[in-house]
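Posting this for the archive.
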Amino acid sequence: MRVTTVEEAPVVAGVVQPRQLIVTLYGLYARDDGGRLSVAALVRLLAGLGVDEPAVRSSISRLKRRGLLAPDRRDGSAGYVLTAAAREILDDGDVRIFARRRATEADGWVLVVFSVPESEREKRHALRTQLSRLGFGTAAPGVWIARGHRAGEVSDMLRRLRLDGYAQLFRGEHLAAGGLPSAVRAWWDLDGLRDLYAAFLDRHRPLRARWSRRRTPDQAAAFADYVRLVTDWRRLPYADPGLPLHLLPPRWNGVRAAELFAELADRLAEPARVHARQLIAGR
């Protein structure tokens, strides 16, 4: 069960773009087959999600232009394979989405201090975007902060995108006498994140109720629900800095959202996989 977050339009009111679904499908079902899916298989998979063939082909073209998919024809069958960059992004996303952990006091903090010349402002934008995706908050201009367990991820990101020449990494502890919870609220938009979790819970609590009444899993329904669930969820672990609970507002709803995702994923993943393999095989 693997997938990633790729910079995309946000999910609004539970509506997702076909290209977001395609990324999820590649993450969940393509890597065991060498990272390839045929166009025909993609059309069948997306049809089960209510996406028509022209939209599938248009979305594939967009992902190709972004360097995530490459054409791959085999035995007269047109298809697309994950690029090396896409594979690395997907691999990075596995732990964040399916096995993420919350930071502890022992993790300390990691600081990224960067300076990018105005003549290279596109790289500055890319760096800020990636730091935000990794859950960093802004402590001061050019100074971004996260819990120390993000150090490996940010180091890998800087190397992969060749941005390491613009940034310095520091590890440390918070030494001030107090005020850390209020500082955390200044560094991260926790109110906005809480709203995202609330929307996720509102959208998917009915799914829990619906599947709790089923005695025999409907594989086609499990596939459709699971792919949409993962697509909706996968951006949230990137938006969440993973702070210890004592630094977060009381009754933090991100805990309930994570529990709901894990419960539904445990119920839906296997019947969804069986149905997906049948569609990929053309059955």
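The two ends are 22 Å apart (CA to CA). The beta strands are 36-38, 69-71, 79-82, 109-114, 137-140, 143-147, 167-172.
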